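Recap for those who missed Tuesday's class. We walked through two folding examples back to back. For each one, the amino acid string is listed first and its predicted structure tokens come directly after. Nothing is annotated here on purpose, so try labeling regions yourself before you check the end of the notes.
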Amino acid sequence: MVWLQEVEHPAKGDKNIVELGMVENIEAGEGSITVTLAFAKHRDPLAEYLIGSAKAAIIRNAPAGTQVEVKTIIKEEAPKKKPGLDLGFEELSEVKHIIGIASGKGGVGKSTVAVNLAVALARLGYKVGLADADVYGPSVPKMTASEADMPDAIVNGEQEVILPLEKYGVKWMSIGYFAKPEQALIWRGPMACNALKQMILQVRWGELDFLLIDMPPGTGDIHISLVHDIPMEGAVIVSTPQDVALADVEKGVNMFRNESVNKPIFGLIENMAWFTPAEHPDEKYYIFGQGGGQRMADKYGIPLLGQIPIVQSIREGGDTGEPAALSTRPDGLAFVALAEKLAEILK
């Protein structure tokens, strides 16, 4: 009723009670008008003023002698949505194990290990997916030679669902598929967290034995968002043997064991454990130190799942998009052995 638009709420930026949705009902009979105003559960200090003003506005405009009544009701406020995307776990309902592949610092080959571990698990006959959660440096498209590919999407109710790419027996998803290779993703934490959730929760994974999540290095807000908002079962830590890397790994271990996170660590993978020249396959050169991974595993009571040497073919496989785990060379078999140990732990 236009008459009620004259009644402004002084505490609401001078918006009128019609704009504010406070007019719940109007009943007009012969010689009478009844208005129902809705107030929130908490007491509005201007309630009496608004009731009187509404009644006065109708009397002022209605025919003389009209009986005017203003009723009130209490209306529950709709619960405020939490900031971020409203995504559920429906697309993860057929996934048995969700495992984070994490590292305390960058440069230890975490993504290389994650990609090869996914391929090795697929070689063993498991149904595998990998979500590239390193939103600032997505490397899965390059490591799988799928930079030119774009995932499809289907409409599921009112929401689009992304279909992962499939290659080498693994389902892949990465923010890198939606950005140009040279494009820098300049995102603040909340924006990165929301994009990450979409890369995991809005993807049609289907039936999987393992969904590996290649986490970004460090222990920041993205990691906290991941472990709180994704039903992650636990994590595998990747490190190199040198002390500076292991010091950061220690922080990563403590993050997962913090009371607010409390996720199990299934094991430690020592990457770049030694260098073996191709022409001297029996020689080992411990460039980054020897035994660091085992000492760290012993200190925290977690298994050392495997040691991956520095081999040129692993680097070449990452650059060409053909993961080393596809091969029957010693480097490929090392990843298969690693996958067998992880699968055994999670049985």
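Example two. Treat it independently of the first, because the proteins are unrelated.
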Amino acid sequence: MRGLEAPPTLHALTVARRDLFDTYVALVTEEERLQLDETTEVYRLLGHLEENESLWDIQASFLDAVLGFYAPREKTLWVVTDEGGVGLEELTPSQRETLVHEILHALQDYHFDLDATFETLGQNLDAELAFTAVVEGDAVVHTERHALRSLAIPAAGGRFFLAAVNQRPNIPAAILRELYFPYTTGATWARGVVMSGGTEGLDAFLTEPPPATTLILHPELMGAGWEPDPPANAGLPEEQLEAVLGPGWQAWFSGSIGEFHLLNYLVGDAPSSPDWLHRSTHRPAINAAAGWAGDHYTLFENGDERLLVARVRFVDDDEAAQFARHHRSAATRRAEVVEEDGFTLATRSDGNVVGLLEPVGRDVIFAIGTSAEAVGAALEALVKG
């Protein structure tokens, strides 16, 4: 059905649900845990997670609903069963669907080396999610499996693909929207690719991943030669911002937020639903993010303090102004607002502070930090610089 040769190295196993946690945790490397922890810091500043929440804890909380997963490094898939050692003929219809879904990931990995591709994406949250949408969209389409019936989550860096069932009530709305994205929007995108270019079209994107979620959200741009246009830095060189912030502050890591994550940030804590991208209530936020052309962020740290400085580029000045207006409205809603000389500080209910500047041409610069002092110092330097 997929038109790919069977992988001779694949191992397919069952795992008893009581053994799933230990089996899964043993496969997660220190580097993957570190990447999850780093992304957690960004998500806390964006407002996706509370201070006591982490992506690792959320991932672990999903394990009681997991149906199966594939680990590229081990070239092994697992189907979760009530007891271990279940034969193929004993699998339930749901378990057989899970097996099909994970075999498709094994096919992708054997022919296109999923793990190697994720390694090249580094700390680019946007490109990583775009590639996950390709991988899962392909698998959903070719198992005729609806994302609402079988939701899955990628682990650190998308290196494992976990087929899970049922929405978890304790997962923040922004995280749920991200989890749904590859199985709803990604599947819609994959269907379009197959219709226009067959499975070879998907093969091309597995070989050369889309550079941004913009191409998943706006598939009409795929044939138009669209490429991201990221700014060189978040507004000032990192060493200059470190000097302005003072002793102890240092750049931790940097990356790209992307259109999807920017939109998810604007939507905030609004309830999640599978059709959220088509709801009229979210249309202003969708339109505000739609002009995204590229971005660069840097996360700074000083002990327990954090500061994210982002520079987002839009296709033109009007799109930048539209985003800035909507961002200001979203960031200052229910916040304590202070107007400084040239910038605005909005303290959210979680204690984090959003710093806003007026657009500079088609670029919008903003900062989010754990203290008003750090955000104010960074923005003052950016205004003067």
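Answers for example two:
The longest strand covers residues 292-302.
Residues 185-207 form the longest helix (23 residues).
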